[in-house]
User: Fold these one by one.
Assistant:
Number 1:
Amino acid sequence: MTLRLFAFDTPNVRKVTVALEEMWLPYAVQVVDITRGDQHDPGFVAISPNHKIPAIVDEDGPGGRPISVFESGAILLYLGEKTGRFLPADLRDRVPVLEWLMFQMGGFGPMPGQVHHFAGLTDEGDRRYGLQRYMAETRRLYGVMNERLAAHQHFAGALSIADFAILGWVWRHERHHVDLADFPNVLRWYRQLRARPAVARGLAVPLRHP
Ligand SMILES: N[C@@H](CCC(=O)N[C@@H](CS)C(=O)NCC(=O)O)C(=O)O
């Protein structure tokens, strides 16, 4: 197996497992249990200097030499380049993929991630303010996605790494308290992606120690 994925069961990792399955790339999972602090292991930090999953090591990198990649957006772009799939070669077609990928990386990930954090607090004052702020922004982002998908089957032309990136977080909509029935175009898109066998495999691959 030439490609190792350093992973735990989280939205940013699920983007990558879905992409790997859709691209038919063989890979081995190395669990990094972030609840135990494995992300601070010096061996892992050497490939992921921000102490976060996901990261990959591809023994069969450019020029046949190994390469490591951290940050899920960079990993998706790398895999798209490597396989020539789900990332258009034509610049005009690639721009919307980059736009929606950056939309996810900069907003629709950090914002619902804050909802996950504040929803877990016990102090009611802290909890209320955080949830009010980040749930409003998360719902606004769902509104933007719903608008986009009103006139588009996918986020950026044909199915792309931008869809996989966004899927990783929509997959956790219940945890950030969003009812997809409020965003019918997102619901339609989500159901369509979940019906794909490779997506189902990517969302089911075990990412925790047994
Ligand atoms: N921007 C990064 C975010 C990665 C990230 O936040 N990973 C979380 C899990 S989803 C993590 O490793 N958390 C462990 C920690 O913060 O200590 C990416 O998209 O790869």
Number 2:
Amino acid sequence: MAEVNLLYRYPRSKRNVTARHAQQVQQRDVAMQFGREYFDGDRSQGYGGYRYDGRWIPVAETLCDHWGLKPGDRVLDIGCAKGFLVKDLQQVCPGLKVLGFDISQYALEHAEPEARGRVVRGNAAWLPFPDNSFRAAISINTIHNLERPLCVQAVREMQRVAPHGGYIQVDSYRTPDERELFLEWVLTARTHDDPDGWKALFREAGYTGDYYWTIIE
Ligand SMILES: C[S@@+](CC[C@H](N)C(=O)[O-])C[C@H]1O[C@@H](n2cnc3c(N)ncnc32)[C@H](O)[C@@H]1O
């Protein structure tokens, strides 16, 4: 038994992995500012143009049905970005009191006109709302952007303000291949895990709401 490179005749890659890695680090730094570059800059740094096109309307319908939301109910969207879901929840259920919450000054300044005045800036780890003040809280592809301890805190906060209706979606992977794709693609996730790892984090935070995964395939 010996250490032996059985791939020594395999052509050397011409790709400059170090340079690419350095570029990725730089892109991550830019993306993590959640500024113009992340939302409306180059695709390598984020969305490559985050524009309203109505794609959240069916999601809003599903969420309203899921919780039986009715006019007057208060709903919080944590990581609302430009308020697309805030706008569509109000459109699907007129009279719903939807509030968006996001750390990005840029996104909130460029929120949909229908969402303006209904979006608040802050960090998901510290929600400036009283206990049990929302019928439901939603957080889509957002809390994985926090370091693990703050991610747990964000889930706890969500549970605190909306103990009877939560929905969290986070980036995840089920196989080593999916994990590799995830690592190559995802720019901003500071906390990541497979579904079992996420479920353990949710338990640790005392979360009783619903959840699902965004998986890059
Ligand atoms: C991938 S985007 C998701 C936006 C939207 N929920 C969607 O699914 O299209 C992540 C959002 O989380 C926001 N965000 C990142 N870290 C945050 C934090 N600590 N607290 C609140 N919002 C945060 C970003 O500004 C961004 O709008």
